[in-house]
Amino acid sequence: DGLREDFMFRNNRSVPSQLNSNVFNSVSLGRLSAFAIRNDGALFGWGANSFNELGIGDTFARSNPVQIGTSSWTQISAGSTVLSHQLAIRNDGILFAWGSNNNGQLGLGDTIDRSLPTQVGSDNWVQINTAGYASFAIKDDQTLWSWGSGYLGNGDTISRSLPTQVGTSSWTSLSSGKGSSLQRAAIRIDGGLFMWGSN
Asked: What is the pTM (predicted TM-score) of this model?
């Protein structure tokens, strides 16, 4: 829509420009929004917000970083589709999700959008990855889990609205294509690289 396109092309920069005087230790870019974790663990978001991307309880775009809740965070993974969703790991290892949920990609057992970070189960997680309308994550026991729609790694293309374990192996890292891309990849604990999805 016009608001999203206007926000996307407003005040373009051709050289790196410092955001502000805060010190950040991680950043994740969505399609038209961005997120960063400050060195004290505070999570900030800015950009488009028509589909609850920012997780701040409304759908108004923000041109400056706004803090998301008051928790301390260790990881953030931003969705890169129009109907994007976000995943974040709190400093106690608990997983939270918000944004669009039309395919169950928030992992909450339904398809209802969330405008605020919502806890996903009670397990501890160490790595997250948003992938189109799907989500992937590794628990602290090195098991790999997926939910949402598309190629989830379970031998079919059935949508799942709750985290479902992918195989029985132990994994160390994962990645996926951005936007509507359907490629997935993960590295097993023995260093073996595995890929699945669109080819």
From this structure: 0.91
